[in-house]
Structures are given as C-alpha cells and as structure tokens.
Amino acid sequence: MTTTSAFKQRAPELHGQTVVVIGGSAGIGLETARRARAEGARVILTGRNAERLKQAALEFDAQHTAAFDVNDRATLQSFLRDLPTPIDHIMVTAGAAHYGPPLEIPLEEARRGLTEHLLLALEVARGAADKVRPSGSLVFMGGTGARRPRAGIGIASTATVAFPTLIANLALELAPIRVNLIAAGFVDTRLSASILGKDLDKRRAELRATLPIRRVVGPADVAALAVHIMSNTALTGATYDIDGGQQFIS
Which residue has the higher pLDDT, 169 or 197? Predict the structure, then answer.
C-alpha cells in the first residue's frame, strides 16, 4: 500500500465527536472549528459578534451557536449548563492579554489582567466537569511572548507564567478529562491586525526574517495543533508552544 493511498483511507480524527469552540467566530477559534468539522466533528460555536457567528455557522453547519461575551459570567455558566451531553472537547480562545506599566495602570485593570484568563479557565472547568466525556478534553489558549520579564509587561508576564500551573492542576482535578494549554506567539489574525495597525506589515517582515521557521504563524497552524491535542488521548496537563521559535530570538 502506498503512503498516498494509506493517507486517503485515514479515518477522520474527530469523527462523530462534538467540539465546542468558545470564541469561534474569528481567528484561531474559527480556524479550529473549520479543522474540527473537516475531521468529522459536530461543532458548537460561541462568539461576541453575532453576524460573524452566523456566517461561521452556515459554513460549518454548526449544531448550535450562542452570541455572548465570556466576561459575562452568568451567561457563560448558563451556556455551559445548557450544553447537550456528552461533549467531547471544549476549546477556549476568547480573551486578550493586558499590557501596560504595572505601577501605573489602574488597580482594577491590573486585577483583571492578573486573573481574567485564570478565572475564565476555572469557570469553564467547573461548568464542563459533568458535560465532557471521559478522555475528552479542554483546550485553552495562552502565549509565549510575555515569559521573559521586560519593562511594561509585568501584569501580562505574571498571568502568562501562572497559566501552565493552573492547567496542570486542573488536569489532575478533572481526570480522566484531559486539560491542555496552547501557548502561541504572534499569530497572523484579525486581532493582531487591530493591535498593530499600520505596523502589521513591518512586524510580518521582521518575523519572516528572524524566526527559525522563516514564515509567520497563522491560525491554521494553531488549529492543527488543537485538533491533534483533542484526538491524542495520551496528552494532558501540558503546555504546547507554537510560535515558530519566537521566544528564542530577541
């Protein structure tokens, strides 16, 4: 049997499974939903933008959608509580890092920056505990860019290094449900474009010239890793870097 024919006969990795993507209307979440659907999964999508969510649902023939902001805790818990069972995988891509001089930003903003991602992961874990099938998984998104201390990123850096510890502990608390973290560097998404504005092309060029992989990481790269983590039942409690080697360069 040739390699090509063997590949053609490969069973879809998520055939018959249900994947929930919280933050699935754009960027990494959208691409993960697309990849999961291509691998035979049913998808349930959430996002803040109702129109983009509607378009994604039509593309993937989504089983269900819900438009809300994950920072609305009551709505998040209601969504998790009403999920049909069993769910196989939940991926959370929603949320953004908080940057700014830690001694100058308002205390309430600093508190949100230190706790927002961690508390979101904890809330999803609590809400998913009796919804996700054993050997199913929770997949969260973090980053690599703030691991090294630098002036102006103390809040983001602290949250970044705390996240893997929480994930490892949740993997023990929720076992046999698996819990993992994807830590991404720069990913070429609409969010990156909105942050960088006119400097986006310059940043892309810098990364192509300096990254060991000599190209920019895109949402499809992260989606491929996410689906692998979902389908490989030996993976839990770990953090998987995907930044093209960005953290190794200055």
Answer: 169
